[in-house]
Every structure is written in C-alpha cells, then in structure tokens.
Amino acid sequence: MDSNPIPKIETINTTGSGDATVGGMAYALSQGYSINDSIKYSMACGMSNAKIETNGIIDLSTVNSLLDQIKVKKVCD
Q1: Which pTM was predicted?
Q2: 30 with 44: CB under 8 angstroms?
Q3: Which one, of 9, 10, 17, 12, lies nearest residue 56 by Cα?
C-alpha cells in the first residue's frame, strides 16, 4: 500500500477543518456509509475546507475528487 494514505494538498486556511471533518463523518454515517467510506468522506471534507480561503466551506467536487485518493489503513487488530 502507498506509504502516504492522504494526498498532498495546497493548504490555504485550516480554520473550520476539524468541524468540516466531524460534519463529514456525521453526514456519512447518517447516510449509511461503511466505516471506511465514512472515514474517507470525513477526511475529504476537512481537506476541502483547508483548500478554501473562507472558513467552514467545502466544495463537493473537491470532496469527490479526494475520495479515491484517500486510503484507510488498518493499524491494529
């Protein structure tokens, strides 16, 4: 597996990225996504927020483009 499970992005403003991550997780779980897909969706939301100058904004096209680039690794049994 790739040693870097998260793609590199140009970070513009991280304010609100944690909230976007939590919101992404809540949304994904409420929609019945698997745990792996929920983790990927939440990370993509936080990363999308970091790519935008305005606080607390995500771009769904960015989220969708990041989903396939994010890999979830199992770290323990």
Answers
A1: 0.89
A2: no
A3: 17
Residue 69 one-letter amino acid: Q
- Per-residue pLDDT tens, the chain, 77 aa: give them: 456 788 999 999 999 999 999 999 999 999 999 999 999 999 999 999 999 999 889 999 999 999 999 999 888 87
Say if residues 10 and 48 touch (Cβ distance below 8 Å). Answer: no
d(CA 12, CA 30): 29
**Conformation bin of residue 75: beta by default, left when phi > 0, alpha when psi is -120 to 50:** alpha
How far CA 7 is from CA of 26, 47, 76, in Å, comes to 22, 9, 22
DSSP per-residue string spanning 11-69: -S--TTHHHHHHHHHHHHHHTT--HHHHHHHHHHHHHHHHTSSSTT---HHHHHHHHTT
